[in-house]
Design goal:
With about 600 residues, the chain is mainly beta. About 15% of the residues lie in helices and about 35% in strands. Strand 8 and strand 9 form a beta hairpin.
């Protein structure tokens, strides 16, 4: 079946300036966004004084922290150069250097290195207090110096990392320098859908700091992370409190509350598995995204030395047979059809980085307004706040592991590249584990750079048995079987995957209908879709016809479907919304009414 591209329609064009930001006055004259072809309405709210000011880690919050987002000095040098002696230009962190909002909008090439520099000061009033420097994501290889001391390096564009900078701090101003190298798609690293030469389904690269950078004071021995795993059948939250050191005399206490009232308390040792019992647990679901508050304290000989606030949801996900003997996806012992979209997570003014937290939130709200209950987060790991919004809004998430270059195979791959890929995958599993919204891991997409599938599938099952596993979605070499699922991808019209005993049937991708709206184009001369141009075809009718077929396949055992896609991305014009999120191409009430024939 060929895809359908609908030509631009008349009468719907809204007149926008080339870039609204260019007409906005900001408080700091050292920065201006670079004009771009398109921008969302939130871009005008960005300035050096409020660049993503929200606390970035909702599931492990402390009351004290210092945001390092804002204007930094920057320079671009040859890859093998030493630190620059001078910096003459500014960049707005955490927007990637390729983005309009960074104030730079330059591609970083594989033979170049991007340098950041800024100064900061911290209060040195608390005895024995330690300071942690956090980077929530830097793409791809980052080396960090403080006051001339090299703190260390980190490889991987999607995982958070941190350093204890206490030994190198001084009173007054401290100088922080970050050097970044990013080869993007000229390498064997994981880079998702980024490209140095955007085309078809490949989009503008993201390089450098693209999530929040921040400082946090902690006690010398402190809580390093939490591992939260709900067990709805046993009415418990399986909890591990990990610390940054091991020492005698320490204990932990966890208190679950709802509306301020305790519903469960557990005390025990750090670094061990604890079972926090929840009386009459309230299940989390898309229609009722109930979250418990959680306070975790670290004590030394009965005295609280560290405390963090968190939350969790009680839910379980599994494949089992319905009353007709069909294998389906069950959430909390109830069959739920997973009706979703293929969400790429790109922004016209920010590349990988949303202009504001409100914009990040809006994408999920819009998809819920359209009647979807699932998002497949495609080949990207989002900031922690995106998953927080899914948790509290009630959106199921199928989480892709960001992919490497599609044409890598056993003859061109390297042991080093595979080791790095697996390390990054492990970090992604660890970093996202606590989100109740995530119900599925997807390891590989359409055979891209696939290797050792059975071994990695076994690793994933052992690492996280609390979620479904889609090990190679849409495989063309081995169609159908993929972990817990039988999966196919098919453009444009939906088809029914093979029925395999014990596997839920999933349509992992379909759609790709391109509908161009003048005035909301990324680049009007660059338009890509999944097939030939067919003028005069009605987009709402095609979408409704597709979903009628999905509904019919549901009766044959289909358990979920992923439509491509919620919004346009650069030259790929296959969205239900325009790339600037300004217009729904079909009235939102119409989309919701169609979708509610499948999911209510």
């Amino acid at each position: 079946m060929k895809s359908i591209i609908i030509l631009s329609r008349s009468g719907l064009c809204l007149v926008f300036s080339l870039f609204l930001l260019c007409n906005v006055s900001f408080g700091q004259s050292a920065w201006r966004p670079v004009p771009a072809a398109l921008a969302t309405r939130w871009a005008a709210n960005v300035s050096p004084d409020n660049a993503l000011p929200e606390y970035p880690r909702p599931q492990m919050q402390r009351s004290q922290w210092q945001n390092l987002n804002g204007l930094w000095d920057y320079a671009i040098t040859p890859k093998d150069s030493l630190q620059p002696k001078s910096y003459v230009e500014k960049i707005l962190v955490p927007y990637p250097v390729e983005s309009s909002l960074s104030g730079v909008k330059k591609a970083l090439l594989p033979d170049q290195r991007l340098w950041y520099r800024r100064s900061f000061s911290v209060p040195m009033t608390v005895k024995d207090q330690h300071w942690l420097l956090h980077f929530d994501a830097v793409d791809w290889e980052a080396t960090v110096w403080l006051n001339g001391h090299q703190l260390g390096s980190h490889k991987g564009g999607y995982s958070a990392f941190s350093f204890d900078i206490t030994p190198f701090l001084k009173k007054g101003e401290n100088e922080l320098v970050v050097g970044v190298w990013d080869p993007t798609d000229k390498s064997k690293i994981a880079y998702g859908k980024q490209s140095l030469t955007p085309h078809s389904t490949w989009y503008t690269a993201t390089s450098g700091i693209w999530q929040t950078a921040w400082l946090e004071p902690v006690s010398p021995v402190s809580i390093a992370s939490l591992v939260l795993t709900p067990n709805l059948d046993e009415k418990t939250l399986q909890l591990s409190v990990l610390t940054n050191a091991t020492a005698k005399g320490y204990s932990v206490e966890a208190i679950a509350t709802t509306h301020g009232e305790p519903v469960g308390v557990i005390k025990g040792a750090p670094e061990t598995g604890l079972s926090l019992r929840i009386s009459n647990p309230h299940p989390w679901s898309p229609n009722d995204p109930f979250l418990y508050d959680l306070t975790v304290r670290l004590l030394y000989k009965g005295k609280v030395i560290d405390s963090v606030r968190s939350y969790f949801g009680m839910r379980k996900i599994e494949v089992k047979k319905d009353e007709q003997g069909m294998d389906r996806i069950f959430l909390n012992d109830r069959y739920v059809f997973n009706l979703g979209t293929l969400d790429q997570g790109f922004w016209p003014e920010g590349c990988y980085t949303a202009p504001t937290d409100s914009a990040l939130f809006y994408d999920i709200v819009a998809e819920k307004q359209m009647g979807f209950n699932t998002i497949r987060k495609h080949l990207k790991v989002e900031p922690a706040r995106w998953y927080y919004h899914c948790d509290r809004l009630g959106m199921l998430v199928w989480q892709d592991v960001p992919a490497r270059y599609p044409r890598i195979d056993s003859s061109t791959d390297t042991k080093e590249a595979r080791t790095q890929f697996e390390w990054e995958m492990q970090e992604e599993f660890r970093q996202l584990h606590n989100s109740p919204a995530i119900i599925m891991w997807i390891l590989f997409n359409e055979d891209w750079a696939i290797y050792d599938k059975d071994r990695l599938e076994n690793w994933a099952r052992k690492t996280d048995p609390s979620r479904l596993l889609n090990s190679n979605t849409g495989s063309k070499k081995n169609p159908g079987l993929s972990g817990d699922l039988s999966v196919v991808h098919h453009y444009c019209y939906p088809i029914m995957p093979p029925r395999i005993v014990g596997k839920a049937s999933i349509l992992g991708e379909f759609g790709g209908i391109t509908d161009v709206i003048d005035g909301h184009d990324w680049i009007p001369s660059k338009q890509w879709g999944h097939g030939e141009v067919m003028p005069g075809v009605d987009f709402p009718w095609i979408y409704e016809d597709m979903m009628r077929r999905v509904k019919a396949y549901e009766g044959q055992g289909l358990s979920g479907s992923i439509f491509t896609q919620p919004y346009d991305v650069e030259q790929e014009k296959c969205g239900l919304m325009t790339y600037d999120r300004a217009l729904f191409k079909i009235p939102v009430d119409t989309i919701r009414a169609i979708n509610e024939t499948i999911v209510k």
